[in-house]
Amino acid sequence: MDFDFTAAQQRRYDEILSATRDQLNDAPSESNGHFTRQQWKTAASLGLTGLCLPSEHGGGGLGALDTALSLEAFGRGCRDTGLVFAVCAHLLACAVPVRDFASGGVRDRLVSGMASGEVIAANAMTEDDAGSDVGRLAVTARQVDGGYVLNGEKSFASNAPAADVIVTYAVTDPRAGFLGVTAFAVRRDLPGVDVGEPMAKMGLSSCPAARVSFQDCRVPAAYRLGEEGQGGAVFQHSMTWERACLLAAYLGVMEHQLAACVDHARRRRQFGRPIGEFQAVSHRVAAMKQRLESSRLLLYRGCWLLDNDRDHLAAISLAKLAVSEAAVANSLDAVQVFGGAGYLSANDVERQLRDAVPTTIFSGTSEIQREIIAREVGL
Amino acid sequence: MSADEISEKIGSYIRERFLDGDLNRELEETSPLLEWGVLNSMNTALLLMFIRDELGVAVPPKGINAGNFRDIRSITQMVIELGRPQQATVAGRD
């Protein structure tokens, strides 16, 4: 057992950390706070939009663990966690299923475009009445000559307002439950695709999310991902990568946050001494460190199991659960360490808390992760 | 292992794990598991692990389809066929 990074992993981590700090933190956002194409291009130029995509298509060719380490550096270096989330949604929830389930020229074009960042992808799975339960989807895809006609509405599609392609899921056989769902990559410019106004939300504000509706939208069969009825498996596969690798970005956020708390606790003086000398503060910081390190080990192990084609379902759920709940708990602790300053919007810790809250919801809620773990142990 | 034994093992697992252990609940070899909602995404993932660990058969992604998971009989047939050298037929069945 070896807990060290390899030299290549350390070099990649350091390069991404340094580059994202230098190039992404002072870039202007859109007036509505959403990421700009220029910010996206910068992230793409650092290889972040294609980390785990095949190198022959311009990607980094990385496995899950190396992708996670890279995203951890991204999350640590870039203060705009919304942008980090947007890149992760594009890469893990969209590009990964295209990489693994699309075929022929469509796969080549989409993967190359997604790796280079020329193509921005949105993930449209959730519906008003279907979140974790894939079997309740209402959007339908009717087979017609040469393709499918999609009808219905998705909600909460991350990246949709900025997207060029939308990865989505629709019912092709209503009698077959979740095995009657089929996945598609839908070009945004197709007739019948309508993207709604960006939704106002608590955190991850720079990543726009919107409703996506399909009205008699004709999608060529070549844009189907996998076989008909394989959408549930396609989605599970993308969620596996998202749970394993997206959450790694929050390890980076927590690392950055912890360093800020330590620095603040050393400099901030009350009653004649640094507040870090008060056990109430130092033990809170110690708890933050413990959550960070323990969740990191779970995540690295989950990624390692995935890379080595070993049973990883519960291990990745454990990692997702641990990192997300650590992110929320550590953010609350960080606000407390910073006191009144932590409550102010001008400070990072206030935004970090708002950005942490959705971690226990996206990619499968904490309740779903606990359910998977409980069933894995035999309950 | 015979087809009857495989079918019995799969049926017992489904009753015990997904039907609250109600061994008397009506579950035939041809009961439509997907239509009834017995096999949702989570239960299917667990069943796949059971098939791999207890029956020694790894189901490839292409094998996870409505044809193979329609009922206990189709799952049994899939396990038998995947246990043979020629795995392509069942994996692609729809």
UniProtKB/TrEMBL annotation, chain A:
UniProt domain Acyl-CoA oxidase/dehydrogenase middle: residue ranges: 123-217
Cofactor annotation: FAD
SUPFAM superfamilies according to UniProt: Acyl-CoA dehydrogenase C-terminal domain-like, Acyl-CoA dehydrogenase NM domain-like
The organism's place on the tree of life at top rank: Bacteria
Domain Acyl-CoA dehydrogenase/oxidase C-terminal: 229-377
Signal peptide coordinates: none
UniProtKB keywords: FAD, Flavoprotein, Oxidoreductase
GO terms for MF: acyl-CoA dehydrogenase activity; flavin adenine dinucleotide binding
Acyl-CoA dehydrogenase/oxidase N-terminal domain boundaries: 29-118
Pfam families: Acyl-CoA_dh_1, Acyl-CoA_dh_M, Acyl-CoA_dh_N
PANTHER family registered for this protein in UniProt: ACYL-COA DEHYDROGENASE, ISOVALERYL-COA DEHYDROGENASE, MITOCHONDRIAL-RELATED
Family: Belongs to the acyl-CoA dehydrogenase family.
Protein name, UniProt field: Acyl-CoA dehydrogenase
Species in which this protein is naturally found: Streptomyces hainanensis
From TrEMBL, chain B:
Superkingdom of origin: Bacteria
Name assigned to this protein: Acyl carrier protein
